[in-house]
Amino acid sequence: MWSFVKSRENETWIWLALEVNSRKVLAYAVGDRSIYTFKQLWDGISDKIKRKAIFYTDRWNAYNLIPYKQRIVKKGKLTT
Length: 80
What we know:
single chain, alpha+beta, two-stranded parallel sheet, 2 helices, 20% helix
């Protein structure tokens, strides 16, 4: 999810990794919509979860950091 901070030029994104059944927040990151901020989110997820989980994403290129067999693309255009 995203919003503006003080002006429309200052978009700030809140990134969440949620457990699908309980909706428990597993990790989060706040920043821009960059690969760097996604990497902060990814690094906050435990290795145990990263090895076993299935991740639902859109087609944004940063999600290519997720192993292909663990990623289900649900919607969206290919974006950078």
